[in-house]
Design brief:
The protein is of the alpha/beta class. The chain has a single domain, classed as P-loop containing nucleotide triphosphate hydrolases (Rossmann fold, 3-Layer(aba) Sandwich), CATH 3.40.50. 31% of the residues lie in helices and 24% in strands. It is built from eight helices and eleven strands. Helix 4 packs antiparallel against helix 5, helix 4 packs antiparallel against helix 6 and helix 7 packs across helix 8. The protein starts with a strand and ends with a strand. About 3% of the residues have low confidence.
């Protein structure tokens, strides 16, 4: 669904993304992992068009991303730190987002009415906070609202940046269930997380970034086989301890590839 070719992004002399070429498979959960400052959030924002790369291109369903934002209508985005207006009430935020997305509570059937984000309102017991201003909510409750908005519209592509951050164990479990349901529905999901145990039951494909360079693009099963690790968390730990060479963007197709030293 997403193809990225020779993507570069710099801020002054700081190179944040360097010659990134990869494919994000359709209908799968892809984990984007790496140490702090690896470029994960910048890559997500580039897909959204919120960051304009210095070179390269991003293609979604054979349509190159331009400054035309129409393609974003099919995307659900859950940022790590939602920038909600503090003076809005939860109910007002949802109404505002519904208006932007062209959604309605009219009762007409459609993907919007079947979207799991509707269930998250009840699952997270957000009905009790509907008339509270966002600025008065705890960090965990704001994150629940963040999730409910991202999943609310039955998107074909979900970009989830540290989605479980700040959630209590029950809310984390419920959110993972919703991600699993979306995977079964055929939604393409890209998720970043430092908590790899959260991804081990969900992710089918893994992208590993270090210093803005792609070092691994592989199915999780292939990565486990190559590293000899029993689970995803230990596999990535071994990558961090003995990092492979960056992938050569001119000779890989972005799937099932692990850079090899030398």
């Amino acid at each position: 669904m997403i193809r990225i070719e020779h993507l570069d992004k710099s801020y002054g002399r700081l190179k944040v993304l360097q010659d990134i070429t990869l494919t994000i498979p359709r209908g799968r959960v892809t984990a984007l992992v790496g140490p702090n400052a690896a470029g994960k959030t910048t890559l997500v924002k580039a897909i959204l068009g919120l960051v304009h790369p210095g070179g390269g291109r991003i293609v979604i369903d054979e349509h190159p991303i331009t400054r035309d934002p129409v393609y974003r209508e099919r995307i659900g985005y859950m940022p790590q730190l939602p920038a909600f207006p503090d003076n809005l009430r939860v109910r007002e935020l949802l109404a505002f987002m519904d208006d932007i997305r062209g959604a309605s509570d009219s009762g007409a059937s459609g993907p919007f009415d079947r979207a799991p984000g509707r269930d998250l309102i009840d699952t997270f017991q957000l009905s009790e906070s509907m008339d509270r201003k966002l600025g008065t909510l705890s960090g965990g409750t704001r994150q629940k609202v963040n999730a409910a908005v991202a999943f609310r519209y039955g998107a074909d592509l979900l970009l989830l940046d540290e989605p479980t951050a700040g959630l209590d164990p029950l809310a984390r479990a419920r959110l993972k269930e919703v991600i699993g349901h979306e995977r079964e529905r055929g939604t393409t999901i890209l998720v970043t997380s430092h908590v790899l145990s959260e991804l081990r039951d969900l992710a089918e494909h893994i992208l590993y970034l270090v210093d803005g360079r792609l070092q691994v693009s592989s199915s999780v099963q292939d990565l486990l086989r190559r590293t000899g690790a029993p689970d995803l968390e230990q596999a990535v730990a071994r990558l961090m301890a003995e990092p492979p060479e960056p992938l050569d963007a001119n000779r890989v197709d972005g799937t099932d590839t692990v850079g090899e030293a030398g």
